[in-house]
Amino acid sequence: EGDARRLSWKYVWKTYWLYFNNQKLTEDNASIQQYGMHDECKLGFVKRLRKEDKPKRPRQPKQY
Fold it and tell me: Is this prediction's pTM over 0.90?
């Protein structure tokens, strides 16, 4: 039944920000009250943008 795949939370947290009330939740040490959250709030994910000052690593060619 379907394709069983594993979810990589490491990938999710590196690639997406939590998003609430039109605001990215970027502060790890902030309390949820600072963002105005309460019971049964809905959170979403928004893709993180790549920092331009961070140089890209060159890809290694695949060896066949």
Answer: no
